[in-house]
Design a protein that fits this description.
By secondary structure, the chain is mainly α. The protein contains ten helices and two strands; from the N terminus they run E-H-E-H-H-H-H-H-H-H-H-H. The chain folds into two domains: 105 residues, no CATH class; 43 residues, no CATH class. Helix 4 packs antiparallel against helix 5. The relative contact order is 0.09.
């Protein structure tokens, strides 16, 4: 266990259910957390640190995955990190989402379907899926994704607009 002052908890860990359950008005109060469930920054470069970050995300109940996790999964062979996720708690919904989004045959469209905004935000510049990305965003009623897709030059047509209007 390690002892941390509430006021010195890193910003990226403050967007989670564990932090929200703390008495954050007492900045000098201390909490104890397992060492395997705390990092002071969200940067990492190897599988060992990736595994620790997954523990951290789960323990703190983060509402959003750090962008560094998305980038790592995109840039690293999925057979390597997917094995790490398989060894961990299978009940972590975000781990299944990562495996699905970054499976070799999956794409931006899958991230839109799953509603993983941080993956959509990252992949919108990395993958061009034709009209299917906009059609999927419209089908799921995600105007925010449609705007993002449009801002990054993804095409759409009248059918996509009609579908968006009906949702």
């Amino acid at each position: 266990m390690i002892t941390i002052k509430v006021g010195s908890i890193p910003e990226f860990l403050r967007c989670g259910s564990f932090y929200e359950s703390l008495d954050v008005e007492e900045h000098h109060s201390e909490i104890e957390v397992p060492e395997s469930c705390f990092v002071d920054q969200d940067e990492f470069t190897n599988l060992t640190d990736f595994a620790k970050m997954i523990n951290v995300i789960a323990f703190w109940g983060l509402h959003r995955m750090p962008m560094t996790v998305i980038v790592f999964c995109y840039e690293t062979d999925s057979t390597l990190w997917s094995h790490v996720l398989s060894q961990m708690n299978a009940e972590l919904g975000f781990s299944n989402a990562l495996r699905t989004i970054f499976h070799p045959s999956a794409s931006l469209v899958k991230a839109i379907e799953l509603g993983i905004s941080e993956a959509v935000e990252y992949l919108v510049d990395k993958q061009k899926c034709g009209i299917i990305a906009a059609a999927t965003a419209a089908e799921y009623g995600r105007l925010d994704y449609l705007i993002l897709l449009h801002q990054h030059g993804h095409p759409w047509n009248e059918t996509v607009c009609e579908k968006a209007a009906s949702n």
